[in-house]
Amino acid sequence: MCKIPVIGPTLILAPDSVISSTTPSAISPGYGIKDNRSATTLTLTPPSPANEPCPQPQTREHFTALEIMGVKKLVIVQNKVDVVSKEKALENYKEIKQMIAGTWAEGSPIIPVSALREINISALIKALVETIPVPQRDFTKPFQMYVIRSFDINKPGTTPDEFHGGVLGGSILTGLLKLGDEVEILPGVKSNGKYTPLTASVRGLKSDSIELTEADPGGLIGVETDLDPSLAKADNLVGSVVGMIGTLPQPTSEVSIEAHVFQRVIGTKEMATLGPLKPGEQIVLAIGPAIVSGVVKSFKSGQLDVKLNRPVVATTGGRVAIARKVFEKWRLTGYGTLK
């Protein structure tokens, strides 16, 4: 069984444009913001004196993505306060407060910390405990899991008696998964131009280094299956959805979205004006765990119809992020819900 690191729901946004995401499930095609929870943590690193103030364009983009995701509770972590003066840290603190003023995040705690020097970590933990409630889980719902990694963990020279099946890494959204369960993986693997659904038996479950007999929603999980490992190697099954056999929506190559398209590009300094979506325009959608390109068929009265370049599992009411190519880069330019 592979070791999959536990990654908390933390989105790191640095005003000096050094950006990384360490969250588990999909929303932003540009940066892979991934989370399926209703609460998260926002970490902002104050810029050096030569850098521009907060928020930077990508900070605005990520902040918008959090709103798209339906985040309701937020803890803002002002990191690396040890690398700037007290005056600069206070200035940055005020900029953060101004950024969230009048938004859904107004009033969220802002915790200055130095992770390197372990300064104010206890205050951060206290804010997390007090602000973000433990999610209520409904284990009676059908099991469903998003695949965000897939592996072949067998090393060269592995003997047949030590051989492991393909491993899936991701987040369980609903229900329970137990050793021995029979599951299906959709849309499956591509062969001869078509996608074929896969079925598999669960041989192992692991959270970080902890072996489990059953797994429930929250955090990342590693699932060893009896699949041919060649099917799972090199993230070949990323973007798939796993469920009990017969419980998942059938994959589709066409989607209709109740869409909200931005008038400006929030992820650029220029805040460039966007024209309307037109038939034939290529866009990128984040649907569940899948990042997929497609072509606009029509966009009328807020309904966006798209022909995808490959099938995805699309759940009615699911959130979708829309990216368009602006200045030679894919930018978050809208969002919507699946119809």
Automatic annotation (TrEMBL):
One of its GO terms (cellular component) is cytosol. PANTHER family: EUKARYOTIC TRANSLATION INITIATION FACTOR 2 SUBUNIT 3 FAMILY MEMBER, EUKARYOTIC TRANSLATION INITIATION FACTOR 2 SUBUNIT 3-RELATED. GO terms for molecular function: GTP binding; GTPase activity; translation initiation factor activity; tRNA binding. Gene3D superfamilies: P-loop containing nucleotide triphosphate hydrolases, Translation factors. One of its GO terms (biological process) is formation of translation preinitiation complex. CDD domains: eIF2_gamma_II (cd03688). Keywords: GTP-binding, Hydrolase, Initiation factor, Nucleotide-binding, Protein biosynthesis. It is an enzyme of class 3 (hydrolase). Residues 55-133 form the Tr-type G domain. Its EC number is 3.6.5.3. This is protein-synthesizing GTPase. It catalyses: GTP + H2O = GDP + phosphate + H(+).
